[in-house]
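Appendix B. Worked example

We walk through a single record from start to finish. Start with the input: the chain for Magnesium transport protein CorA, Paenibacillus segetis, length 322.
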Amino acid sequence: MIRILGITHDHKVESNISLEQLNNMSTSQYLWSWIDFDEPTKEEAEELGNYFHFHPLAIEDCLMVLQRPKVDYYEDYEFLVLHAIDPDTLSTVEVNLFIGSTYLVSFHHRSLTELDEAWEAIVKRPHDKKSWLKGPFAAAYMVIDKLVDQYFPCVYAIEDELDELEKRGARESVELLMNQVFDLRGRLLKLRRTIVPMRDMMYRILNSQHIQGEKEHRVHFSDIYDHLLKLSEMIESDREMTADLRDSYISLNSNRMNGIMKTLTVITTVFMPLTLIAGIYGMNFINMPELDWKYGYFIVLIVMLGLSIWMILWFKKRGWFK
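Next comes the structure step. The output line below is what the pipeline stores for this chain.
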């Protein structure tokens, strides 16, 4: 679907416009327009070249998903590759923007709530001449801002899970906790692969002299960059926390194994001399004088019991049970 809205020279918003009405943009009745390719068909996607005559490399980037977030400068427009995040799966959805002096073209293969919200915000915005004079960059800023705002709930949800995981760490098995930690690290990695390139792209925009009208919107784009910087720092902090939890669980598991091995070692050591005594008197030799003793059996039991008690006390004195 291709949907179009236009801002007239008297600063009114008109929607449901066709491409034919924008055919001659130099003498158009619109100050600027936003053309949104929402899940376009193959025929609709061809309009990027047939109608707008965008560079073939930019069109290729639109059709070949998934590109890294970036900004390319062309003679009459700027081309941005952005990433939206699916909050359920944390998978990325590519959003492409062409920003010209009199138009904004957005292209995406999936319907996105963020773009719908930006679209509705422009359609329902009260009559405001000052706002519309900012041109397509105002709409582009709104789209990017909506995309970045969607990152925060995803990061906050992981932080809540980390806090909960830390609280119940002593009540669950280490194996289950480790699986949850590695799952969180994998999700953080997905977010990092989206947010860090977006941050780098915004840094490039802020420090570029190529983008039309960028100086006028520096404050707005700087605000988005600050959000991305905060998100990237949160992700790095969460990754460090998961690393600490992982190391703690590994240490806890090793400590438990050491305790189990110590207990088994003590039991084995105590029974070794008892097994030796039982083995000696279990041999079937004829000339074993102790076998004829009246109280030999009881004497051996007492010796074995005394030896066991002495060894346990000696181990305790040596600190084996601490």
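Two observations about the output. The radius of gyration is 36 Å. The CA atoms of residues 122 and 139 lie 8 Å apart.
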